[in-house]
């Protein structure tokens, strides 16, 4: 049982786009819906599959990945951007990253928190769909979304951290 060595294809941030859904209900007072973030890759499915595969050619599952936002400025400034990243929890390796408006991502995190508070979110507070040209490759139910300042400090009040989890 060893780790495989894979030469990783270069994937640029601009090769990815991010779209969120089921977040409006928080502001309108509607019925809770599990928020979904879709990260779409404009490239080869084979390349993306390789990135999302762990040791022994087994696809990484939800508890082997982390989703984060690293802010590029003041979180209270609506013009601030950030870098959304999906990483391998075991190795810390970067699986993919993309630039995004921080305000949009923080709005998503607030919706995921509200969903967890208003429902029995046994299947996670939000869903991540990773796709190639609109075709889902992986879908993860997640409970944690960590937000970091531009200095690398964890912003607990802006993050989605389930009760009982210590970081």
Quick rundown:
This protein is α/β, with parallel strands linked by helices and 167 residues long. Helices cover 17% and strands 32% of the residues. It has a four-stranded mixed β-sheet with strand order 1-2-6-7. The chain has a four-stranded mixed β-sheet with strand order 5-4-3-8.
Explain how this protein is built.
This protein has 167 residues and is of the alpha/beta class. Helix content is 17%, strand content 32%. The protein is built from three helices and eight strands; from the N terminus they run E-H-E-H-E-E-E-H-E-E-E. The protein has a four-stranded mixed beta sheet. The longest helix is centred in the middle third of the chain and has 17 residues, at 102-118. The chain is globular and about 45 Å long. Pfam families: DUF5793 (PF19106). InterPro entries: DUF5793 (IPR043811). This is DUF5793 family protein. It comes from Halarchaeum salinum.
